Amino acid sequence: SSVTMNVAKSGYRVFSANSSVACTELAKKITERLGVELGKSVVFQESNRETRVDVKESVRGQTIFIIQTIPRDVNTAIMELLVMAYALKTSCAKNIIGVIPYFPYSKQCKMRKRGSIVSKLLASMLAKAGLTHIITMDLHQKEIQGFFSFPVDNLRASPFLIQYIQEEIPDYRNAIIVAKSPSAAKRAQSYAERLRLGLAVIHGEAQCSESDMADGRHSPPCVRNTTGHTGLELPLMMAKEKPPITVVGDVGGRIAIIVDDIIDDVGDFVAAAEILKERGAYKIYIMATHGLLSADAPRLIEESAIDEVVVTNTVPHEVQKLQCPKIKTVDVSMILAEAIRRIHNGESMAYLFRNITVDD
Q: Where is the signal peptide (predicted)?
């Protein structure tokens, strides 16, 4: 057919790295916008849970884009991506570009006690499997780009979320942008400046939380070996202690809009909403790029003081929406499609980063 001729001539193909409804759906949205057909491949788990990929058409000398959304089982999704990239590499594809809207393991990008920087490992694995370029969105830390030996386009969802605020939140000019912790303050500041709104930051923690278990501050103290060399006497560091919760900035009589990059474990968000309500905020929105919304997140949101949670479709969350009508989705397939088109045509990506600041 003329369509397939077209695809062959254009010299690039788009594949979906699995056939889950969610991934195929995003891939369909993207290929429809590009006017190409989805590449033919079969990705499945053998009965012993091994990942198997069969590419059903020739890819020799072509530029291939692999779309991989990360659904529940993150490790299977990574393996699918690795095996598919390798299958394409060994079939002589010229370029293999991963379209990974939510990059997994991105929270494990800093060293913890006897841990490892898993997102660096993942970057190396993807390169080894044959990927030559990645398109992603809102990396948890922008510095993760430096873990890769090939180009990374870290697209931003903020223009879409800001547009949502302006168009869908009535009276948004009476809103204040809130960071639920000081670490989210940079992103919040970037939103506040572009929307010309005020900024509030929540600091401290409820005095019975276990969130500080993760950083090894409670690991047993090392027993001083009294015999032999004692080593240098280093100054004793004061143990960190988070103060009780305070809100820096006045939210009274305002709409509070909490912004963040990932919403997964919603405990922090629910607690923040409670505090903001106590301080007189009359409506509470949460805006985040990646709506992982694991476990019983939908129920907790539904029962909370939060009025609306707005996320993009970088991560599939249809099931969660059925359980919680407060969850709304902003479609970002357009910018992913545009990135694919520009990379294929060798056009500048700068256009996609208009008004994007360093802190965004």
A: none
**In Å, how far are 96, 125, 181, 263, 277 from 249, measured between CA atoms?**
47, 44, 13, 23, 14
Q: How many CA atoms lie within 13 A of 274 on its CB side?
A: 13
* Whole-number pLDDT of residue 311: 97
Spatial distance between the Cα atoms of 77 and 68, rounded to a whole number of angstroms: 7
Give which of 310, 333, 334, 305 is closest to 321, Cα–Cα: 310
| pLDDT one-digit tens code per residue, 253-305 | 999 999 999 999 999 999 999 999 999 999 999 999 999 998 899 999 999 99
The residue type at 187:
R
**Which residues are paired to 256 by β-bridges?**
176, 284
- Nearest-CA neighbor of 285 among 138, 165, 163? 165
pLDDT band at 223; cut points 50, 70, 90: low
**Rounded to the nearest 10 degrees, what angle do helices 185-195 and 158-168 cross at?**
50
Given a cut of 80, is residue 339 above it in pLDDT?
yes
Residue ranges of the alpha helices (H) in the chain? 2-10, 21-34, 74-89, 118-129, 158-168, 185-195, 267-278, 297-302, 318-323, 333-345
Q: How buried is residue 245: exposed, middle or buried, by Cβ count under 10 Å (0-12/13-18/19+)?
A: middle
Centre a 10 Å sphere on the Cβ of residue 40 and count the other Cβ atoms it contains. 11
